[in-house]
């Protein structure tokens, strides 16, 4: 990852919580500890953050604590071609008239480009997804209520009596921070709470993850592999990871990246 990109991630992270540790920055940027310490030192000299023991903090502490994880704007740039191919395969599972849930995320967001010609009820907790569908499609869109988390572009509610309980979906589409033998993993307790409510409203859970997510872990488990009907990923998935899904009875779809812009346009049409 380029230095400028690491600095952007680090500065976003320190605005989301009081103190960010070196290890957290290592995980966010996939960089070495030595690299992160150099980045912190450089940003400290530039007076863009304050270096503290074991990490860094913002010059002006955040007034509102956000969710754990990378901001939407950063995640959006990572593995973009793979995410678009995965999203295309996800929309291929949809049928006009069938209600679906699309959980907020940068991979699920890519589904909007392939939903423009569809007609179905769609429930989402994502502002960008709702906005794009309202502007560029005739789908019926329902948006969840709750607190808006700007960095992740997502709306979450901790309450049980929100509108989520009134929507039924044939399928729910979602991404994740990681996917392993124990199941689907996320990085924030509030995400877990909100997403579990959404999962309960759908017959099938379809997980959209690029192959890097099979090598990522978190301390929080959202659900076991037994709850997942289908995983859609790219051709970077390893044999042992595919075997893990097969053993758990999870269907696997491997998305192929278009070889050219012309092919991409024809697939989208």
Task: Summarize the helices and strands and which ones pair or pack.
Elements: H1 3-16, E1 20-21, H2 22-29, H3 33-45, E2 50-52, E3 55-57, H4 72-75, H5 80-92, E4 100-102, H6 106-109, E5 121-124, H7 127-136, E6 140-143, E7 147-149, E8 154-156, E9 169-174, E10 178-180, E11 183-186, H8 189-200, E12 202-208, E13 220-223, E14 230-234, H9 239-247, E15 251-255, H10 261-268
Parallel strand pairs: 4-5, 4-9, 5-6, 9-12, 12-14, 14-15
Antiparallel strand pairs: 1-3, 2-3, 7-8, 10-11, 11-13
Helix pairs in contact: 1-3
Q: Tell me the number of helical segments per DSSP (H or I, 4 or more residues long).
A: 10
User: In whole angstroms, how far apart are the ends?
Assistant: 34 Å
Outline the low-pLDDT stretches: none
**β-sheet strand percentage:** 15-25%
Find the count of extended strands (DSSP E, 2+ residues). 15
| Average pLDDT figure | 85
Largest sheet: 7 strands, parallel
Secondary-structure element string: HEHHEEHHEHEHEEEEEEHEEEHEH
Q: How much is the radius of gyration in Å?
A: 19 Å
Overall geometry: globular
Fold and architecture overview:
Pfam families: DeoRC, HTH_DeoR. This is DeoR/GlpR family DNA-binding transcription regulator. One of its GO terms (molecular function) is DNA binding. Residues 3-58 form the HTH deoR-type domain. The chain is an alpha/beta fold and 269 residues long. It is 35% helix and 22% strand. The strands form four sheets. A seven-stranded parallel beta sheet has the order 6-5-4-9-12-14-15, with helices on both faces. A three-stranded antiparallel beta sheet has the order 1-3-2. The chain has a three-stranded antiparallel beta sheet with strand order 10-11-13, with helices on one face. A hairpin with a 2-residue loop joins strand 10 and strand 11. Helix 1 (3-16) crosses helix 3 (33-45). The model has no long low-confidence stretch (mean pLDDT 85).
């Amino acid at each position: 990852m380029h230095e400028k990109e690491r600095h952007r991630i680090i500065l976003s992270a320190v605005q989301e919580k009081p103190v960010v540790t070196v290890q957290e920055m290592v995980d966010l940027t996939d960089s070495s500890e030595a690299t992160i310490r150099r980045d912190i030192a450089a940003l400290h000299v530039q007076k863009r953050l304050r270096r503290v023991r074991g990490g860094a903090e913002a010059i002006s502490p955040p007034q509102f604590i956000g969710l754990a994880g990378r901001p939407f704007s950063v995640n959006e740039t990572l593995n973009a071609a793979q995410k678009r191919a995965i999203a295309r395969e996800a929309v291929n599972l949809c049928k006009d008239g069938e209600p679906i849930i699309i959980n907020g995320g940068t991979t699920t967001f890519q589904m909007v480009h392939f939903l423009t010609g569809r007609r179905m009820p769609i429930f989402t907790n994502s502002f960008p997804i709702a906005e794009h569908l309202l502007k560029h499609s005739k789908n019926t869109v329902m948006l969840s209520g709750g607190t808006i988390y700007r960095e992740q572009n997502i709306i979450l509610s901790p309450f049980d009596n929100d509108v989520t309980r009134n929507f039924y979906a044939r399928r729910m589409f979602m991404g994740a921070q990681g996917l392993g033998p124990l199941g689907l993993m996320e990085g924030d307790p509030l995400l877990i709470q909100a997403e579990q409510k959404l999962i309960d409203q759908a017959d099938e859970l379809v997980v959209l993850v690029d192959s890097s997510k099979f090598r990522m872990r978190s301390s929080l488990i959202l659900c076991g592999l037994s709850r997942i009907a289908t995983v859609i990923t790219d051709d970077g998935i390893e044999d042992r990871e595919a075997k893990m899904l097969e053993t758990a009875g999870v269907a696997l779809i491997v998305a192929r990246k278009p070889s050219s812009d012309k092919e991409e346009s024809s697939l989208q049409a």
